[in-house]
TrEMBL record, chains A, B:
UniProt keyword annotations, A-Z: Cytoplasm, Lipid biosynthesis, Lipid metabolism, NAD, NADP, Nucleotide-binding, Oxidoreductase, Phospholipid biosynthesis, Phospholipid metabolism
Function: Catalyzes the reduction of the glycolytic intermediate dihydroxyacetone phosphate (DHAP) to sn-glycerol 3-phosphate (G3P), the key precursor for phospholipid synthesis.
Descriptive protein name: Glycerol-3-phosphate dehydrogenase [NAD(P)+]
Compartments it resides in: Cytoplasm
Length: 361, 361
C-alpha cells in the first residue's frame, strides 16, 4: 500500500455527501496554481464551480484539455469545473467569489467586478501587501466594495501538495459566520481542513509578513547559526509579527495558529523559496542587485520590508529584525547585523504580552 | 573572516563587565552536556561557579584536565570553574543552585540537598516528567523544599551549539523577580540570551511535552506528509500543548515564546533525535519493541505520552495527537491514525482561545 493510496483512502472514507447540502455556487478568480487547486477542491465538494481566467485562449485551452499547463501540468482537473474568461458570467448570480489574483492586480479586478456584485461574498486568497498603499487585500475589498461580506483565506498551503492529495489545513477569517461556513462548505474536506477565525487582520498579516522572515532565515543559513539560532529567529519573528499586528487590533493568539506559526514554519523550512534564496545571497555578502540578478526575479519579501518598516515607524512598533534587514539591504550594513539585532535585545520578556519589557544590557 | 570569528567578535563587543556587579555564587548540579555548558557560561560571566558531579573520579579528572570527556570531549572549560563531588561544599553558602540532573534522579538529589539549603534559590534545568508521579521538576522542588525560591530554565538549547559559541536563547521562569534577575546575571551573555517569564508551569510544560510531538513528526516523515502537513502538525501540536497547559493555569501566550514554539521547532527539525527516530520507525509499521531495539535505547517521549494521556483524561482535555500516538504504540492501531487524528477535527476554531469550537463533519 503506497502512502498516497492511504491518504486517498482517508478522503474516500470522509467524502462529503453533497446531496445533504444545498448546492453552493462558487467562483474562483485567477488561474494560478493555488486558485486552480481551490477550484478543483470546490468542484469535488459538489459545488457548482467556475474558474475565471483573464486570457481567453488559456481559459478555452484548460476548459478543453482539463489541464492547467502553465501551473499544474501533471494534474487533470475535475470534469464538472467550468473555466471561462467571461467575467460577467463568472461573477453574477454566484454565492461566493474567491479572489486568487496577485497583489499588484488585485484592486483592478475588484474594481471590475464591483458593478456585478449584489449578494455575493468576496474572499481573498492572496497573500501580500499592495505596493505603495500598504493595503492588505481585505482592505482593498472593503474600500472598493464597502457593503459586501468578505473574508480572507491564509495558511501553509503549497498548491502542488494540495492538488496531489497530500494533507493540509488553512484558515478562513471573517467577521461573518455565514461567510466562514460557506467557505468551509466549499473547500473543507478530508485532506484539506478549513479552520475558522474572526481575526481578519491577524490572519492576513501572518501571510504577508512571513516573507520578511524567510529572508532573515536565508541570511541566518548563510551564517550557519545552528538549530538554537534558527529557533530563536523564528520565535523573535513571531513576537515581532504579533506585536505589529496587535498594535493594529489583531489578536496575538492568532499567531499560534496555522496562518501564523504554521505558515511561518513552512516558509522558513523552504530553502527553495525566492525569499529564502535572496536572504542567503545577502548573507554571503552580495548586494540586493546581485542577489536578484542571480535569482532571475525579485522576491515579495523585499517590498514587504520597505512597507512594514515604514508602517512600523508610523505606529511606533519595535521591529528589530525588519529594521536590521532594511539596513543590510538598503544601507549596506554588514549582514551580521541580523544576528546582532536578535542578540542585543536581551533581558526583555520572552513573549511580549506575558511580562512587560525590562530594558537592560 | 570565518563565521565563528564573527560570533566571537559579537561576544567580545558585548562582554559583561564583571566588576560592575557583586559576584554571584553559582552552583550547577550535574555534569551532563547542558549542565557543563551552563557552568562554563556562568564562569565566563564572572560568577564564582562550582559544578558538582556525583562520581568522585570523574570530578577529579575534569577538574584536572579541564575537559568533560564523556559529554563535550572537544571543549576546554574555563580555568576558574571548580568541579567537585563534595555536595555539601557545592551547595552550602551559595546564591543559586542550578539543577541539571535527569528527571529520574532529580528528586533524590533535591532530597539530599534539603538540609544544606538556607537562602539559596533552586532552579531546574531539567526537561521532563517524573515517572509515575506526573511531577514536573518545579513541583518536586516545591514538594521537597517548600520555602525555597525556585525557577525553571527551558528553551531550544542544544548544548553542543552553545558551548561552541553559536547564538541561542532561553527562558527563565519564576514567580520571583529576584530569581529571574539572578539567573540572567549568571547566564545571560552576548551569545546566550536569557528571557524572563513568570509562567513557570507553561514554560516547563513546553519543554516536557515537545517530546511527544517529535515522535509524531517522525511518524509523519515516514508517511511523507509534505510541508503543508508538517506545518499543520506543528500547529495542532502547539494547540494541544497550550490547551493542556491552560487547563492547569498556564498562559497560552507562553507557547508563542522560546520555551513553546521555539523548542518545538528545534525538536521537530532534529531528525536525529531519539524521539523523532522512534516515531519514524513506528511510521514504517514497526512495533515499539522493534523501534526501541533499533535505536538501542528508549525515547523520553514514550513515557511522556503515557503520562500526559492519563492526566489529560483526568482533566478532560482534548488531545487527539497524544491519544492517536498512544493507540498506535500500545493498541496496534495503524500509524495512519495520526493523520486521521489531525484531519477529523475540522471546522474547529484554528486557535483554541480565539473562537469557540464548532463541532461539525
Amino acid at each position: 500500500m503506497s502512502q498516497t493510496t492511504s491518504f486517498t483512502e482517508i478522503a474516500e472514507q470522509n467524502k462529503v455527501n453533497a446531496a445533504d447540502r444545498p448546492q453552493l455556487r462558487v467562483t474562483i478568480l485567477g488561474g494560478g496554481s493555488f486558485g486552480t487547486a481551490m477550484a478543483n477542491l470546490s468542484t469535488r465538494n459538489g459545488c457548482n464551480t467556475i474558474m475565471w481566467i483573464r486570457d481567453q485562449a488559456t481559459a478555452k485551452q484548460i476548459q478543453t484539455s482539463r489541464i492547467n499547463e502553465r501551473y499544474l501540468p501533471d494534474f487533470k482537473l475535475e470534469d464538472q469545473l467550468l473555466i471561462t474568461s467571461d467575467l460577467d458570467f463568472a461573477v453574477k448570480d454566484r454565492d461566493i467569489i474567491l479572489v486568487a489574483i496577485p497583489s499588484h492586480a488585485f484592486r483592478s479586478v475588484i474594481q471590475k467586478i464591483a458593478p456585478m456584485i449584489s449578494g455575493q461574498a468576496v474572499i481573498s486568497l492572496t497573500k501580500g501587501i499592495e505596493k505603495d498603499s500598504f493595503c492588505f487585500m481585505s482592505e482593498i475589498i472593503r474600500e472598493e466594495l464597502p457593503e459586501v461580506p468578505y473574508g480572507v483565506l491564509s495558511g501553509p498551503n503549497l498548491a502542488k501538495e494540495i492538488i496531489e492529495g497530500m494533507p493540509a489545513g488553512t484558515v478562513i477569517a471573517s467577521h461573518s459566520e455565514q461567510v466562514r461556513l460557506a467557505v468551509q462548505q466549499a473547500l473543507h474536506s478530508a485532506l484539506f481542513r478549513v479552520f475558522a477565525s474572526d481575526d481578519v487582520h491577524g490572519v492576513e498579516l501572518g501571510g504577508a509578513l512571513k516573507n520578511i522572515y524567510a529572508i532573515a532565515m536565508g541570511m541566518a543559513a548563510a551564517f550557519n547559526v545552528g538549530e538554537n539560532g534558527r529557533s530563536m529567529l523564528i520565535t523573535r519573528a513571531l513576537a515581532e509579527m504579533s506585536r505589529f499586528a496587535v498594535k493594529q487590533g489583531a489578536n496575538p493568539l492568532t499567531f499560534l495558529g496555522l496562518s501564523g506559526v504554521g505558515d511561518l514554519f513552512a516558509t522558513c523550512n523552504s530553502p527553495l523559496s525566492r525569499n529564502y534564496r535572496v536572504g542567503y545571497s545577502l548573507g554571503l555578502g552580495k548586494t540586493l542587485d546581485e542577489a536578484v540578478a542571480e535569482l532571475g526575479q525579485t522576491a515579495e519579501g523585499i517590498n514587504t520590508i520597505l512597507q512594514v518598516r515604514h508602517k512600523a515607524a508610523q505606529l511606533d512598533v519595535y521591529m528589530p529584525i525588519t529594521n536590521a534587514l532594511y539596513e543590510v539591504i538598503f544601507e549596506h550594513a554588514p549582514p551580521l547585523n541580523i544576528a546582532l539585532s536578535l542578540m542585543k535585545n536581551g533581558h526583555r520578556s520572552d513573549v511580549e504580552f506575558v511580562l512587560p519589557h525590562q530594558e537592560m544590557s
